[in-house]
């Protein structure tokens, strides 16, 4: 065992979803899945109840983060966070949101304190958190705020990237209503998002001068301004600014012909102007093994690319691939010198 090895911190996510059983199944298959040591910030009782629900005999041990690596070979380490909860797979419960948020923040504090290498978040139910006053659209923006709190001297401009073996995509606008996209989509936002993407692909993912393909917003990228003007007046100038800075940006491209196999050879990453423009192709091509990774943070965060999947919770049948890929990617990004 590497005495300096730090565990990956996993937040429990929405208790009614599949996150708990992903952690259980991942630990049970840790060798065959080649997983790094990890611990879950969550509730020990809840994990034990979910293990019983899916018919899994497993040892779960409550630990502090510094004990997790040593414990990992014997039992699933849990860092108790919040009160004991009752497991109701697929059923939203009042009063769990505080624990969900505390687990995410606790993991970030662990990284800041040198106790964890990186963070893998399990899916949250966004609407359930909004109802309790959570003011961030998702993890991505919340983690940006936590980065500014815990690393006040470092820049934190979170950018979402969905990374699969065949396709990398970045949505420039994320969780906003589609009607708001044109107003939010500014030249500066596109340039900033592309710069962070290019920098992190080079520094953390080993691309030299990554090729970024920017989608248009309108059908046929606006058809020379006849089907909408944003492509011509906002996206094209942003691409020109990026190219002037030496970034290998191209576009605006018609999005409908950007994702078939020959087209995918022409770029390293696609920047889409809104969520579904790029998450639909990314999940269609790589739903099982893509990872959601936040660029632009002073620490490493990944997550599976899927959501809470209430319909599968408690059945023990949810696919583990994306969660396992998220754990492996977090460990590699956090330990570039060792791997
Ligand atoms: N990172 C995060 O926290 C994310 C959270 N969500 C949240 O998840 C909730 C549900 O969202 P949906 O759009 O229904 O997406 P979803 O990903 O939970 O489910 C979509 C479909 O994929 C299936 N699926 C999801 N994960 C699977 C797995 N591991 N194995 C096999 N099948 C799987 C589900 O059964 C369902 O048919 C929402 O509240 C949303 O906010 C969604 C995406 C990411
Ligand atoms: N559709 C992707 C998603 O919902 C993940 O968002 P985040 O919670 O990682 O910001």
UniProtKB/TrEMBL annotation:
Q: Which organism is it from?
A: Roseibium salinum
Name the reaction it catalyses: 4-(phosphooxy)-L-threonine + NAD(+) = 3-amino-2-oxopropyl phosphate + CO2 + NADH
Q: In which pathway does it act?
A: Cofactor biosynthesis; pyridoxine 5'-phosphate biosynthesis; pyridoxine 5'-phosphate from D-erythrose 4-phosphate: step 4/5
Its lineage opens with: Bacteria, Pseudomonadati, Pseudomonadota, Alphaproteobacteria, Hyphomicrobiales
* Record: residues binding substrate: 139-140, 283, 292, 301
Among the GO molecular function terms of this UniProt record, one is: 4-hydroxythreonine-4-phosphate dehydrogenase activity
User: Where does the record place it?
Assistant: Cytoplasm
Function statement: Catalyzes the NAD(P)-dependent oxidation of 4-(phosphooxy)-L-threonine (HTP) into 2-amino-3-oxo-4-(phosphooxy)butyric acid which spontaneously decarboxylates to form 3-amino-2-oxopropyl phosphate (AHAP).
Judged by the first EC level, this protein's enzyme class is oxidoreductase
In which residues is a divalent metal cation bound?
Answer: 175, 220, 275
Reproduce the miscellaneous comment text. Answer: The active site is located at the dimer interface.
Name the NCBIfam families on file. pdxA, PRK05312.1
Tell me its EC number(s), please: 1.1.1.262
Keyword annotations from UniProtKB, A to Z: Cobalt, Cytoplasm, Magnesium, Metal-binding, NAD, NADP, Oxidoreductase, Pyridoxine biosynthesis, Zinc
A Pfam family the protein falls into: PdxA
Q: How does it assemble?
A: Homodimer.
| Name of the protein | 4-hydroxythreonine-4-phosphate dehydrogenase
Keyword ATP-binding (UniProt): no
| Cofactor(s) recorded in Swiss-Prot or TrEMBL | Zn(2+); Mg(2+); Co(2+)
């Amino acid at each position: 065992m590497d005495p300096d090895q730090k565990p990956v911190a996993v937040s429990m996510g929405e208790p009614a979803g599949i996150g708990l059983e992903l952690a259980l199944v991942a630990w049970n298959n840790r060798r065959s899945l080649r997983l790094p040591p990890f611990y879950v910030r969550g509730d020990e009782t809840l994990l034990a109840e979910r293990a019983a629900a899916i018919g899994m005999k497993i040892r779960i041990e409550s630990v502090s983060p510094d004990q997790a690596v040593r414990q990992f070979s014997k039992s699933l380490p849990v860092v108790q966070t919040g009160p004991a909860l009752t497991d109701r797979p697929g059923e939203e419960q009042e009063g769990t949101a505080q624990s969900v948020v505390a687990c995410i923040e606790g993991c970030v504090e662990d990284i800041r304190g040198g106790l964890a290498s990186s963070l893998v978040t399990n899916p949250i139910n966004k609407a359930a958190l909004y109802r309790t006053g959570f003011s961030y659209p998702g993890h991505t923006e919340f983690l940006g705020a936590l980065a500014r709190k815990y690393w006040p001297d470092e820049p934190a401009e979170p950018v979402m990237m969905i990374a699969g073996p065949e396709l990398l995509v970045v949505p420039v606008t994320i969780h906003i209503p589609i009607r708001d996209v044109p107003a939010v989509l500014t030249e500066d936002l596109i340039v900033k998002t592309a710069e962070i993407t290019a920098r992190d692909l080079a520094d953390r993912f080993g691309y030299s001068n990554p090729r970024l393909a920017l989608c248009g917003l309108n059908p046929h990228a606006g058809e020379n301004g006849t089907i909408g003007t944003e492509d011509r007046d906002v996206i094209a100038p942003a691409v020109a600014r990026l190219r002037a800075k030496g970034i290998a940006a191209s576009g605006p491209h018609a999005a409908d012909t950007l994702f078939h196999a020959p087209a995918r050879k022409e770029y390293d990453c696609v920047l889409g102007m809104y969520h579904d423009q790029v998450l639909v192709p990314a999940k269609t091509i790589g739903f099982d093994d893509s990872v959601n990774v936040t660029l632009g943070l002073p620490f490493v965060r990944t997550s599976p690319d899927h959501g809470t999947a209430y319909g599968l919770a408690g059945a023990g049948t949810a696919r583990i691939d994306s969660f396992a890929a998220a754990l492996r990617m977090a460990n590699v990004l956090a330990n570039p010198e060792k791997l």
